[in-house]
Amino acid sequence: MAPHAELEETITRFKGAEAALVVGSGFLANLALLTTLAGDGDRILCDRLNHASILDGARLSKASLRVYPHCDLDALERLLRRETSGRTLIVTDSVFSMDGDLAPLDAICDLADRYGATVVVDDAHATGVIGDGGRGSLSHFGLAAGRAITMGTLGKALASYGAFIAGPKVAIDLLVHRARPLIYSTALPPAVAAVASEAIHLLEEDPGRVARLAERATYLRQQLATLGVPVANNPTPIVPLVIGEAAPTVRLSEELLAASVWIPAIRPPTVPAGTSRLRIVVSAGHSTYQIDYLVAALRHLGVGGGAGGDQAGDR
Which CATH class name applies to 208-314? Predict the structure, then answer.
C-alpha cells in the first residue's frame, strides 16, 4: 500500500541506498537476509556477540557458520583466508546491544573487499543514534552505502514498529521474490508504516536530536563514573552496569523501579552466566536532572565504591 511504498522510499533516501524493503520485525529481517543470501555451500562469518536473530538466520540458511571472537579482526581474517567455493558473508552488529560498543566496520569492510566477501550489518541500535543525522554505522565510519547491506529496526530510536533492509537494488529484488519471512508473513499495518516515515522526517528536520542524544550519553557516563563503577567510553546511549549474578541484578532493577526508575535486568541466556547487568539506555528526551536522579538512586542503593556503598558486583 502507499504508506509502505512511502516508507521504503524514505528509508532509501535516508540511508543513501539504492533500494529498501520493509519487513515485520528485526528478527524477521535477519532471517530473511541470511536465508536468502546464503545457502548450502556458502559460509557465514559471525561475531560472537551478534544478536540471536543473526545466529538463528545463519543456522537456518544451511550455510557453514563460523563464529569469530568479539571484534577480533585477526581471527576474522584467518577465517577469510580459508578456501571456499561459495559466497562468503561477514555479518555483524554495528552497535552491540548488551555492551554499547561498536564493531570496527571500516576495517571489516576493507577485509571484505580484499577477500571478496559481502558485509551484512545489523544497524538496529545505530539507526537514529550515530552517523550524520542518525543515518547509522556506515555514515559514522564515513563509508559509502554500497559497502554493506544493512538492516535496522523501526521500533527503537524511530519509536514505531517493524524493520527494514537497505542495500543494492539487485539484493532487494532478490529478497522480494525469495525471502520466506517476507512472503509468508503479514505486512506492517499501514498506520504503523506512516508513523515510521514521519519519525524519519522529524529526524531529518531536526538532526540536532542526535547531537543531544550524544550529549546525554556522555553526561550519563560522566555521572556514573562518580560512583566508581567501570564505564566504557563508547559513543552510544547504551551503558551496561554489570552486577554479576542474576538474583541481585533483578532485585536492584526492582528497587530502582520502586524509586520510579525503569532499567530492565538483563540475565542469561541473553548474556553469559555471571555477567547479568542493568542495561541503562538514555534518550535525547531525558534531562540532566533525570540522569542525576538515576545516579543518586544507584548511590542510595549501594552501587559503586563512593559514598560508603559497596561495589556493584558485591550486591
Answer: alpha beta
